[in-house]
Write a structure and sequence with these properties.
By secondary structure, this protein is of the alpha/beta class. Helix content is about 35%, strand content about 25%. Strand 7 (about 160-165) and strand 8 form a beta hairpin. Helix 1 crosses helix 2 (about 55-70) and helix 4 (about 125-135) crosses helix 5.
Length: about 375
């Protein structure tokens, strides 16, 4: 964590700077009771943070105005042909996102001890921040208002939960854990025939525990779910207990595989080979396809002789020019596995149909696929 020092009311203040994004801390701090969005933006361009000391609802209005100034309506890409260089279009989009985030994160607030926001008309944010950071803070710290509002929204989603049709119940997911808002891959796992026999299954990178829960509901007697994110494992434990599957699922801390082998191994790795820029993006981006490659390299060592590995992938990376069209199938073959069957689903989330999305040229063609894989010498 970085420590920031500034002068305010003839006193020197020192506080920790917290930011979930991988951005440089502010060079300077300017405390204000009120100001315009233009003033905040002017400060932000010099990496000077505007520390809001005024009314909370006014801060939200300034933040909304700031976003409006930075987000000009994008030109539709769907109506145009695919860019000559899709990968360059993707990286330009990511750069624009990073620049936007760096600027809006320069409007900040002070979080006092006990996760308290001491601003006029401020809500109680303690539960939302405890959901993110755990135990109460003893000293004040600075936090981008953008992220505070995100934490509040994530906390409400955590309480409400996400309806999962394959379970007939809700999954509750805290900030920093991948949320199964995209249901098409869940339906693929729920309806693909299980291998025979199927006494043990591994769920690699379980996250919220939703796939482990689906496998348990389908009658797999013993499921081992792994993750290297402790927050994810806590979320999975709470969900599985709530759903009544805790006795059928063993949660383990692991980078990928547990010990031993299984009849079925399921993995839904991040689909896009790019570098995440924040904690929440770690479940979306897989730098250099590290998790995918490690899974394919090691899976045959843990797959029973007659077993199946189910790899769930989107072809978004192919449409973005980040992975060659036949690269994945070649990697699968090189790993000693054979594709027995592929099952496909078309995404139904909002961005898939948004013609104004900067990556609409790729999202409009995206397909999610479940690859049924077996040892080459046992392929059907």
């Amino acid at each position: 964590m970085n420590t920031l020092i500034w002068q305010e009311n003839q006193q020197q203040l020192v506080m920790v700077w917290r930011n979930e994004s991988q951005q440089k801390p502010p060079k300077a701090i300017v405390p204000v009771i009120q100001c315009s969005a233009d003033a905040v933006l002017k400060n932000a361009h010099t990496r000077t943070a505007t520390l809001w000391r005024g009314d909370f609802h006014q801060a939200k209005s300034i933040f909304a105005a700031l976003k409006k100034r930075l987000r000009k309506p994008p030109k539709s890409n769907l109506k145009d042909s695919k860019p000559i260089d899709a990968a360059s279009a993707f990286h330009a989009h990511r750069m624009k996102q990073a620049q936007y985030s760096a600027l809006v994160n320069m409007l900040v607030v002070e979080i006092s001890a006990g996760f308290t926001l001491n601003l006029p008309r401020a809500p109680d944010v303690s539960a939302a921040l405890r959901d993110v950071y755990g135990e109460n803070n003893q000293t004040s710290f600075l936090l981008p208002l953008s992220q505070l509002l995100g934490f509040i929204g994530a906390h409400e989603w955590h309480k409400t939960g996400v309806e999962v049709a394959a379970l007939g119940q809700r999954i509750h997911v805290p900030f920093g854990v991948f949320s199964p808002l995209r249901g098409e891959y869940l339906e693929l796992v729920a309806h693909t025939p299980l291998p025979k026999p199927c006494q043990t299954a591994f769920d690699i990178g379980t996250g919220s525990g939703v796939l482990a829960a689906i496998l348990a509901k389908r009658g797999v007697p013993h499921v081992v779910a792994t993750d290297n994110n402790l927050r994810a494992l806590e979320s999975a434990k709470a969900n599985l207990t709530r759903l009544g599957f805790s006795q059928h699922v063993d949660l383990q801390v692991a980078d990928l595989f547990p010990e031993d082998s299984a009849d079925l191994i399921v993995c839904n790795p991040p689909w896009v080979p790019a570098k995440p820029t924040s904690t929440i993006e770690a479940a979306l981006y897989d730098p250099n396809s590290a998790m995918l490659n490690s899974f394919l390299t090691q899976v045959t060592l843990h797959l029973n002789k007659e077993g199946e590995a189910w790899l769930i992938m989107s072809n978004l990376a192919e449409h973005l020019g980040l992975r060659a069209e036949n690269e994945l199938s070649a990697r699968i073959k090189d790993s000693g596995l054979h594709i027995v069957e592929t099952r496909h689903s078309k995404p139904t989330h909002a961005k898939a149909a948004d013609v104004d999305d900067a990556l609409a040229f790729a999202r409009s063609q995206e397909i999610t696929t479940l690859y049924r894989l077996k040892h080459i010498n046992k392929a059907l």
